[in-house]
User: Which sequence fits this backbone?
């Protein structure tokens, strides 16, 4: 299997290099004019070599063939290096040095051509024959023929709740027992046993949550940062209920020292009965670093761990108990495998065809009752349709499971699902292993990184070009369908992915396989005496590196000297200062991806180094929250840049030279960026533009030239600007998917009618007065946010007719009337409704069968509201109701109108309590 991996990655490397050379011949026509034919021939030779790699797949048992494959891979890398280094140097050369550079390049090309000849001679000796593209398996084509999972609901994780009844009952008893002092409950077991699944199942049960005044769930992992743990808990136990409050709370927390965060959290929890879950804690040091933040609290307060380290419980200084999820027996194992390998039938069952039953049972037994192994194996089998294909998997499974330890067997099963991936998809999965453990990975960022890395080329469907990011999203969905990557959060449509993550064992697999083939590597930085962990030192030969920054680092950046001299990708996580990155180093000369993920601490203001302009091959530059005050003018040299992310850099100044980045697709700026000198009209490839002043779109008529925009965020100064933009091609070209607009309080939107024709628009966020009403809304909206709209007519009459609307927020001052009415059959798809700051609403009426899909209802700041509609009782899908209202509302519930909720409320006290409501969760605060 390892040999197959080498081959598949070689195919990817060669394919990427062929594409890259083709791009360079077009984009760098001037620089390469005198060697154009030589570079073209190298490209053609590599393309021919690619077809021979296909046949090598059948001869992997030959050591010489494996060596040949590695030679091809090295050759592809070296060709890229030679061409790109020449381009970097020739741009700064003069009439004296340029001939020398050309002479050196021709000599290097001659040597490479000799290597190409040697490789083809060896190919003949090894009996490797070419295969055409038609003979090779096309992943995209096969992908379209495969059955897609039809139910993307995240509740599908319930399928994994097999044989957890006893453990659930035991864990629930531990959590609800009322000790006088704080106690710890640990869920212990090996990786993949289902610790987090069990803990989540109990944590989310209503009769558990109702016993606590506040609850919080945070991930810890091996690469924990105490301030991140503290910050996450503070945000979840009361620091910020609305989006705006949460944003302000995050800014406040960024300014706090760690000791102050501990003090604040201690005060918040002191008078409350709380439940805090620390998921995936590896050692006692993580707990000790935050221990002082946890007071005894009210009687019955609990902290819950999930851990694979049983020794942690022996070192705790508090009363503690532990439990473990069970291994599954043979029948339970096959039940879980069926749930992951087959779709649910109309009868609600996961039926296995008779001819696959025995094969499935035998493979399930090989997993030895470990849930993760069964889930991943089920994802692999989902892609296999026949008994022959299942038999082949079984054969591979038995050949791999030749080790005795259970952990080794699990690793082999996970690896088998990886080996089964189409060669096109392997780099996508390996790349996910770069991210820190338990980190939620934003889908859009991941896809933009994939594209910058060159993992795919633009495909076509018939005569219509398919947006490359849509195809990349299909690749992500494929990894999810195979249970190799997990969905963390769904987006506003309820179908698409917002964030994803990988189980830590799958992440270990990705890092291990990537390291074996120098695809990418990870460096874990620690303190000054030991700047790089021993396990990462060998991975620095990779051309893609992820660096995890720890605390108390030496600013001399010793780690840079250990990088590959021709580094292509650098992902930094939790970096504390821009000064830790010496951009003048030669190792960065060929970088295509530079992502700087800054830690949550306060970052002082600084200017970006002019040396950034020397990284002329950059395609992705991520500088979010870097504390940058200004980008240098040398940024105009980054002619290959596709993504520039400078969000959360308040007041950052963008130079006019940014206008020269004609290939830029995604430009992400903070709300108050200063970009008046930027000729945005020149950025004709832009698809994402957030956030931009309307004046910058109107000037030089950018509103007419930017016709590829799919995601747009605009700030208007007056209604005239809005009218010009909304009637311009930037909005009505038919490509817009997401639109965010804001208007000052002293003006209003005159007419939004042109938005009616934006049929692809699914997400709309409007802040400002809309005197003309809501008749303009496009039909395919799935998410709508209205703030300060000052609507005079009941908005529900229009909104309830939007058949696809899943998320609706009527924010502060969005409606000035006194009555809301929801009709029968209205809002058929709505899952989340947020009503906030509707100060004049007194009555809310709701007919039965309205909002029949509603799962969450948030009500806050509606002081005149007399009562919630009784018909909420009949919304059987409702899972969560959060009410934060004036004291008079609570008085009415306890007084004259209490009979209406006699069946609804089982427990009813009104001082920050969680109340159980016929299976619903209701948080009432005053």
Assistant:
């Amino acid at each position: 299997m390892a040999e197959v991996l080498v081959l598949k990655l070689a195919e990817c490397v060669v394919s990427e290099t062929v594409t890259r050379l083709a791009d360079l011949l077009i984009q760098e026509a001037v620089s390469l004019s005198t060697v154009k034919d030589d570079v073209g021939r190298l490209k053609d030779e590599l393309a021919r070599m690619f077809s021979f790699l296909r046949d090598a797949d059948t001869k992997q048992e030959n050591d010489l063939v494996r060596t040949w494959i590695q030679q091809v891979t090295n050759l592809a890398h070296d060709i890229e290096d030679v061409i790109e280094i020449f381009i970097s140097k020739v741009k700064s050369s003069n009439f004296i040095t340029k001939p020398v550079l050309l002479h050196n390049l021709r000599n290097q090309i001659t040597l490479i051509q000799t290597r190409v000849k040697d490789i083809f001679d060896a190919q003949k000796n090894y009996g490797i024959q070419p295969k055409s593209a038609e003979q090779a398996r096309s992943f995209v084509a096969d992908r379209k023929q495969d059955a897609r999972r039809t139910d993307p609901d995240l509740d599908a994780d319930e399928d994994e709740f097999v044989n957890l009844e006893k453990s659930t009952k035991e864990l629930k008893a531990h959590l609800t027992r009322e000790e006088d002092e704080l106690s710890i409950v640990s869920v212990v077991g090996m990786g993949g046993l289902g610790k987090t699944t069990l803990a989540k199942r109990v944590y989310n049960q209503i009769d558990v949550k109702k016993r606590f005044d506040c609850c919080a769930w945070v991930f810890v992992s091996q690469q924990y940062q105490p301030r991140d743990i503290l910050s996450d808990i503070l945000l979840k136990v009361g620091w910020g209920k609305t989006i705006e409050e949460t944003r302000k709370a995050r800014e406040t927390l960024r300014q706090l020292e760690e000791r102050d965060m501990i003090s604040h959290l201690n005060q918040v929890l002191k008078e409350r009965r709380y439940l805090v879950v620390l998921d995936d804690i590896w050692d006692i040091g993580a707990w000790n670093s935050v221990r002082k933040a946890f007071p005894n609290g009210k009687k019955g307060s609990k902290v819950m761990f999930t851990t694979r380290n049983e020794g942690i419980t022996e070192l705790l200084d508090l009363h503690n108990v532990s439990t473990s999820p069970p291994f599954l027996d043979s029948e339970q194992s096959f039940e879980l495998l069926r749930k992951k390998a087959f779709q649910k039938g109309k009868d609600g069952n996961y039926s296995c065809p008779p001819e696959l039953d025995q094969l499935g049972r035998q493979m399930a037994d090989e997993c030895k009752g470990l849930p993760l192994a069964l889930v991943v194996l089920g994802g692999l089998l989902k892609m296999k349709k026949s008994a022959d294909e299942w038999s082949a998997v079984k054969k591979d499974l038995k050949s791999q499971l030749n080790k005795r330890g259970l952990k080794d067997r699990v690793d082999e099963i996970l690896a088998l699902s990886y080996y089964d991936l189409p060669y096109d998809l392997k780099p996508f999965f390996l790349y996910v292993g770069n991210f820190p453990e338990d980190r939620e990975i934003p889908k859009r960022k991941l896809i933009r990184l994939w594209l910058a890395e060159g993992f795919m080329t633009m495909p076509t469907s018939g005569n219509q070009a398919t947006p490359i990011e849509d195809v990349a999203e299909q690749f992500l969905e494929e990894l999810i369908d195979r249970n190799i990557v997990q969905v963390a959060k769904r987006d506003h449509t309820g179908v698409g992915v917002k964030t994803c993550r990988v189980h830590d064992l799958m992440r270990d697999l990705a890092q291990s396989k990537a390291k074996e083939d120098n695809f990418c590597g990870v460096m874990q930085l620690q303190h000054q005496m030991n700047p790089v962990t021993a396990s990462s030192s060998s991975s620095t030969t990779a051309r893609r590196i992820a660096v995890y920054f720890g605390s108390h680092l030496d600013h001399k950046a010793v780690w840079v000297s250990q990088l590959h001299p021709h580094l292509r990708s650098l992902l930094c996580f939790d970096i504390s200062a821009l000064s830790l990155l010496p951009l003048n180093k030669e190792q960065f000369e060929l970088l295509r991806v530079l992502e700087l993920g800054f830690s949550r601490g306060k970052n002082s203001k600084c200017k970006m180094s002019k040396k950034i302009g020397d990284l002329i091959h950059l395609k992705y530059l991520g500088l979010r929250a870097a504390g940058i005050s200004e980008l240098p003018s040398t940024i105009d040299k980054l002619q290959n840049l596709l993504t520039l992310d400078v969000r959360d850099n308040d007041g950052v100044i963008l130079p006019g030279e940014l206008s020269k980045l004609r290939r830029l697709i995604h430009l992400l700026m903070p709300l108050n960026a200063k970009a008046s000198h930027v000729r945005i009209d020149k950025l004709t490839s832009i698809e994402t533009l957030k956030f931009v002043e309307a004046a910058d779109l109107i000037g030089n008529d950018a509103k007419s030239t930017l016709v590829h925009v799919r995601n747009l965020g605009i700030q208007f100064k007056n209604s005239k600007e809005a009218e010009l933009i909304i009637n311009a091609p930037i909005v009505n070209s038919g490509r817009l998917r997401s639109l965010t607009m804001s208007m000052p309080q002293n003006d209003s939107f005159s007419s939004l009618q042109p938005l009616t024709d934006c049929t692809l628009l699914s997400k709309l966020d409007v802040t400002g007065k809309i005197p003309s009403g809501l008749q303009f809304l496009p039909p395919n909206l799935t998410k709508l946010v209205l703030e300060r709209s000052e609507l005079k007519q009941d908005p529900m009459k229009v909104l309830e007719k939007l058949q696809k609307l899943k998320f609706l927020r009527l924010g502060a001052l969005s409606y000035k009337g006194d009555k809301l009415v929801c009709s029968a059959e209205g809002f058929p798809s709505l899952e989340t409704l947020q009503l906030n700051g509707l100060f004049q609403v007194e009555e809310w009426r709701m007919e039965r069968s309205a909002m029949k899909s509603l799962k969450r209802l948030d009500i806050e700041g509606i002081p005149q509201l007399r009562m919630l509609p009784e018909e909420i009782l009949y919304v059987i899908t409702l899972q969560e109701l959060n009410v934060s209202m004036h004291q008079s509302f609570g008085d009415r519930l306890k007084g004259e109108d209490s009979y209406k909720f006699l069946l609804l409320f089982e427990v009813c006290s009104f001082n920050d309590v969680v109340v159980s409501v016929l299976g619903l969760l209701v948080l009432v605060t005053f």
Notes: The mean pLDDT is 80. The chain is about 35% helix and 15% strand.
